[in-house]
């Protein structure tokens, strides 16, 4: 008899994560006998753990802090994982450990779901230059956005992204964001500002074009001050929880063989969990 398929989230320490909630919901909905567990694996045991994923009974894994760069190095990454410089999803295919970074499609598919037509934007403004910004840049460029302006508090990191992603990326100083707002048909916020316990992002959404789309990757709180201000101005928005849910789709499909849906029922389930903690 075949063993039920199982995947896991590997991190250290084993942080509280919404991934089990999401994958268990889909397993139930699709009537698949499978499992998804959290595995606390210290850095010194990580390589051995992923090399023996199949032996341990797993068809794949999500990877979180602090293992994402290591996961990239230990696997055969696709172009997305390479460009982001980190792998968050592993699976075994033809005896090979493969990896991708699903933040790219999580971001893009959520934008498509929330703000169809966003890709008519000739210019996008991305705030931040960390790991999440890399995934956003890869997705925007792959989708054909011609010009992406990047502002980051530490200017060198924005310049490094221009080096990495090429001529469509234009770094500007953090203090010059105001001047870039009137041209930004799409604005994406990827810093940790606006998260619970952090100061809000201080920009005037009134300077964005009237048909601009605003995306915020922060999902605690669900509605950040930035998203609240954008909605009050009647702008279309895409939130961080939507991206989190959409990024989980590919892993599930790779491990369990069916493509799951991001439904309002799933969103409500995860929202309730987020507001509880
Ligand atoms: P990261 O690699 O540590 O980058 C953090 C970014 O925030 C950097 O650009 C940093 O600028 C900037 N920053 C931090 N404090 C700042 C401040 N006080 N003022 C201005 N800029 C500041 O983190 P990350 O992985 O990119 O994650 C960034 C955010 O995205 C987090 O809130 C994370 O939860 C969220 N995220 C959400 C999803 C999702 O699925 N919704 C996925 C990935 C990430 P410097 O370079 O100057 O330090």
Number of strand elements: 12
Which geometry do the CA atoms define? globular
Largest sheet: 6 strands, mixed
Total helices: the number is 11
- The strand order across the widest sheet is 2-1-3-5-6-4
- Gyration radius over CA: 19 Å
Please give the alpha-carbon distance between the first and last residues. 40 Å
What helical percentage do the residues reach?
A: 40-55%
Q: What percent of residues are in strands? A: 15-25%
Class by SSE composition: alpha/beta
Overview of this protein structure:
The protein is of the alpha/beta class and 277 residues long. It has eleven helices and twelve strands. It has helices at residues 19-29, 43-51, 68-74, 79-84, 103-114, 131-143, 155-165, 177-180, 225-232, 240-256, 264-276; strands at residues 5-11, 34-40, 60-63, 76-77, 89-93, 96-100, 123-127, 147-152, 169-173, 186-189, 213-216, 236-238. Helix 7 links the parallel strand 8 and strand 9. The relative contact order is 0.14. The mean pLDDT is 96. NADP nicotinamide-adenine-dinucleotide phosphate binds next to helix 5, helix 6 and helix 10.
């Amino acid at each position: 008899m075949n063993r039920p398929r199982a995947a896991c989230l590997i991190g250290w320490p084993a942080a509280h994560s919404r991934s089990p909630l999401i994958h268990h919901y889909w397993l139930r909905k699709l009537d698949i006998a499978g499992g998804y567990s959290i595995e606390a694996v210290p850095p010194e045991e990580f390589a051995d753990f992923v090399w023996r994923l199949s032996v341990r009974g797993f068809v794949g894994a999500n990877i979180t802090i602090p293992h994402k760069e290591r996961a990239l190095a230990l696997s055969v990454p696709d172009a997305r994982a390479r460009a982001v410089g980190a792998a968050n999803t592993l699976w075994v295919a033809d005896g090979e450990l493969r990896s991708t970074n699903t933040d790219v499609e999580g971001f893009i598919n959520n934008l498509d779901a929330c703000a169809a037509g966003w890709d008519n934007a000739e210019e996008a403004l991305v705030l931040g230059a960390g790991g999440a910004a890399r995934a956003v840049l890869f997705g925007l460029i792959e989708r054909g956005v011609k010009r992406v302006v990047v502002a980051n508090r530490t200017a060198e990191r924005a310049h490094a992204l221009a080096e990495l992603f090429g001529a469509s990326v234009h770094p500007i100083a953090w203090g010059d964001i105001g001047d870039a707002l009137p041209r930004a048909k799409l604005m994406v916020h990827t810093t940790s500002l606006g998260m619970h316990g952090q100061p809000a992002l201080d920009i005037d959404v009134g300077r964005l074009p009237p048909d601009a789309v605003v995306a915020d990757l922060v999902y605690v709180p669900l509605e950040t001050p930035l998203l609240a201000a954008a909605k009050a101005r009647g702008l279309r928005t895409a939130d961080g929880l939507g991206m989190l849910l959409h990024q989980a789709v590919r892993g599930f499909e790779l491990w369990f063989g069916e493509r799951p849906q991001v439904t309002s029922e799933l969103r409500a389930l995860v929202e309730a969990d987020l507001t509880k903690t």
